[in-house]
Amino acid sequence: MSWAAWRDSDVINVYFKDVPCYECEKPEGIHTAFSKILATLNQPSANYTLSFANKLYGNKDIAFIQKFVFCALKLYLTEVDGVDFHNAPEEVRRLINLWVETRTHGKIKDLLPKDSFDCLVQLLLVNALFFKGQWEVKFDKELTEEAPFYPHHADEKECHSVQLMHRKGVYNAGTIDLCNVQVQVVEIPYKNNELTFVLLLPVDCSAEALEQLEDGLSHKHLLDLSCHLKAIEVDLAIPKFSSEKSIEANEYLNLPDLTDHEKADFSGATTTEGVALTQLVHDASIEIDEEGGEEPEPVPCPKDRRPRREPVEIRADHPFLYFIVHNCTQSIIALGRFAKPE
Asked: Which of 100, 155, 221, 325 is the most buried (most CB within 10 A)?
């Protein structure tokens, strides 16, 4: 039986009749606000694919509190599961990899390499994301060409090859001073303007300029960029690429209140004492290609005797930053650096 058919049947009422409906938080709480954003992002769309895989794995000797299990799923779409890390770590690793692969439609495989954890794991939190969108107006595949990409500066000895996509059109764009770096910025909308891909290309091709930009950026900078842009004709060239990055997030985040056995307090999640988060694994996979909607029909207009301005060239043939924003919720769902082809 399909999920849709099962969902609409009386079976679900029988199955869940003994499950209490916990009040996880007051309606105005911050966790509830995050829940609404996640619910919006998780809605099916024909314009993009956005897949989340969130799951907390605990060794089977950890007794999770049922309210925590319920609220983690309700508020953060995060499942909680008990597994046998201590006696069967390799089997658990394969199980986690298969689950992530399934949830991301086969796009993220082998998230956890062999020997990525041992039998002493208590809690392991997995977070993975896959995104691929359809542009509001597609790039013409026939114009995509193999072109040089300079990782640090315009030095032919260090150049790599990329598939460079091309399109001339009207985009919100401009050259602005951002963190004391001159940056070309262009917004490339996805279908129905649900999401936007924003390219930040330093005019200076040096590694130092990119590093200065990256170090100085803030969340406010990113969300305020649109105020400094205007609709102009752009001759745009950006690489076609797929990017996947997997990290042990607890190595980058300072989380002693979760990972230190002396400081961690999971009393709201489990009745088992002395529990701490052993690993937090994050993986993001992004695909950027030509696919999208058709070119709109040109609108006839009276002849303008003023000389037509040449399009502004934005050619991303050296390292740049990018982010993808969900416009309705102003949520940044991906933020990355393209430094060289993989």
From this structure: 100
